[in-house]
Amino acid sequence: MIASDKTLIRLNGLSKHYGRLTVLDGIDLEVKAGEVLAIIGPSGSGKSTLLRCINYLEPPDGGTITVDDIVIDAGNPIGRAALSGLRRRVGMVFQSFNLFPHMSVLRNISLPQERVLGRSRKEADARSMQLLSRVGLADKAEQFPIRCSGGQQQRIAIARALALDPEVMLFDEPTSALDPELGLEVLAVMRELAKSGMTMIVVTHEMGFAENVSDTVMIMADGNIVEKGPSKEIMRNPQHERTKRFLRAVHDR
Amino acid sequence: MLPDFTEITAWMPDLMSGFKISLQVTFFSLLIGIPFGLVLALGVMAKGRVIRAISLFAVEVGRGAPALVLLQFIYVGLPSAGLMVGSFMAAIAALAWNTGAYTSEIIRASLLSIPSGQREAAEALGMKRLDELRFILLPQGLRVALPALLGFSILIFQSTSLCFTIALPELVSRAYEIGSITFRYFPVLLLAGLLYASISIPAALLVDFIEKRAGKFASR
Ligand SMILES: Nc1ncnc2c1ncn2[C@@H]1O[C@H](COP(=O)(O)OP(=O)(O)O)[C@@H](O)[C@H]1O
Ligand SMILES: [Mg+2]
């Protein structure tokens, strides 16, 4: 499934502390272009923080982040160009959708294109409509987000991020706030996105997605990577006690 | 005790010219003061320590000092520092400061009421700070702040009556002037009061209406 051998994302010794608490304990990670990486692990293990450090929503305090040709060293203050370059290459989808409630669905998707990429309103709207069709919501363009179900809002949020043509998409528990059947429609969109060759890092509790859609699975605990490997191997035949315990706990739920 | 018809027609021109000045002072105080309040709100929330300290100082003085003291301070104090200001300018400066200080808190609270997830989304999308403010935070924040801002505007309109202490010929000054000549203080102040009410009461009703509508908007 992985389209190429090109490494798109490389993290070296990425660390993050909140006061005395070590949340990321020197993470080394490589993600190839076209790879879909699922991150699983108990809550509080640093999964969200890892994602948020990758696009610098949370500044890491040690290590380096490389995305495509952008290199960011946590030791130095980040430059404006590096930050906007990073944000342009990395799209993010949040657990709570975070649509802008005072704008129509179409405006939600078009405004960032106009402000960030300098597209004209016409170009932006055309791209927005194309993506709304792709996530199956073309008929919602003129609605306000509040009139859409949670599953629809999350698909709109995915379209909004895709509209900026990112090279990698980060998902932080995109279905955790949804009823199972609404989660399914979001997962279907994500599966289609994975097939299309998008590079994705997905923090999830959906074991089916981790096993069947992602190429690689990584288990985190206490700010460290417990193990990482091809998804089927890890999910069916985990090596580490910590992973076994976590997977058992998930199955028992 | 009530003013009779000939009195009303005799006093009205003076009272109306005072009323006009009261409205002008209100208008310019708000025109300058509310944007100033936005600047102070952003200043207080800024990352830079110096900007934050200066903004906090301006807010605390503007809120802490009674409007009367601010008026005197600017009207009497500034000339002794070599800066001449007329009573009209002094009134606007003092009330704009007062407005800025109070509305900065109103605006700050309304900006903070917007869920932080929206700011994160804007940031993750790569939008600039200024765009985030202009397209995401302000349109929602000002909608939240609108009733409180209007309510405060009514208070500022009423505060213009304090300007009689710096010899500004606004409504209360004019009424006193007439009173001191005719010794008909009560009827002329009653008229002045009615003129204030002609603005304040409809404005207060408007605030109620907007608040109810805003409530409906939020709960739908
Ligand atoms: N802003 C913050 N301030 C202090 N502690 C935080 C903050 N954000 C996260 N943490 C702590 O960092 C740890 C990891 O959090 P997080 O990355 O959200 O974990 P996960 O997403 O795996 O559940 C938790 O112990 C959490 O309490
Ligand atoms: Mg999390």
Automatic annotation (TrEMBL), chain A:
PANTHER family in the record: AMINO ACID IMPORT ATP-BINDING PROTEIN (PTHR43166), GLUTAMATE_ASPARTATE IMPORT ATP-BINDING PROTEIN GLTL (PTHR43166:SF9)
Start and end residues of each ABC transporter domain: 9-247
Protein name (database record): Glutamine transport ATP-binding protein GlnQ
Entries under Gene3D superfamilies matching the protein: P-loop containing nucleotide triphosphate hydrolases
GO CC, alphabetical: plasma membrane
Membrane topology of the entry: Peripheral membrane protein
Protein family per UniProt: Belongs to the ABC transporter superfamily.
Highest taxon above the source species: Bacteria
Alphabetical list of CDD domains matching this protein: ABC_HisP_GlnQ
GO molecular function: ABC-type amino acid transporter activity; ATP binding; ATP hydrolysis activity
InterPro entries assigned to the protein according to its UniProt record, in alphabetical order: AAA+_ATPase (IPR003593), ABC_ATPase_HisP-typ (IPR030679), ABC_transporter-like_ATP-bd (IPR003439), ABC_transporter-like_CS (IPR017871), MetN_ABC_transporter-like (IPR050086), P-loop_NTPase (IPR027417)
Listed Pfam families: ABC_tran
Localisation: Cell membrane
Keywords assigned: Amino-acid transport, ATP-binding, Cell membrane, Membrane, Nucleotide-binding, Transport
UniProtKB/TrEMBL annotation, chain B:
A Pfam entry, by short name: BPD_transp_1
UniProt name for this protein: Arginine transport system permease protein ArtQ
Molecular-function annotations in GO: transmembrane transporter activity
Coiled coil: none
Domain ABC transmembrane type-1: 19-207
Top-level taxon in the UniProt lineage: Bacteria
Membrane-crossing segments per the record: 21-42, 54-75, 81-98, 144-168, 188-210
Gene (UniProt): artQ_1
Keyword check for Signal: no
Keyword Metal-binding belongs to the record: no
Membrane topology value: Multi-pass membrane protein
Family affiliation: Belongs to the binding-protein-dependent transport system permease family. HisMQ subfamily.
Annotated Gene Ontology cellular component terms: ATP-binding cassette (ABC) transporter complex
GO BP field: amino acid transport
PROSITE patterns membership: ABC_TM1
Main location: membrane
Keywords: Amino-acid transport, Cell membrane, Membrane, Transmembrane, Transmembrane helix, Transport
Compartment(s): Cell inner membrane; Cell membrane
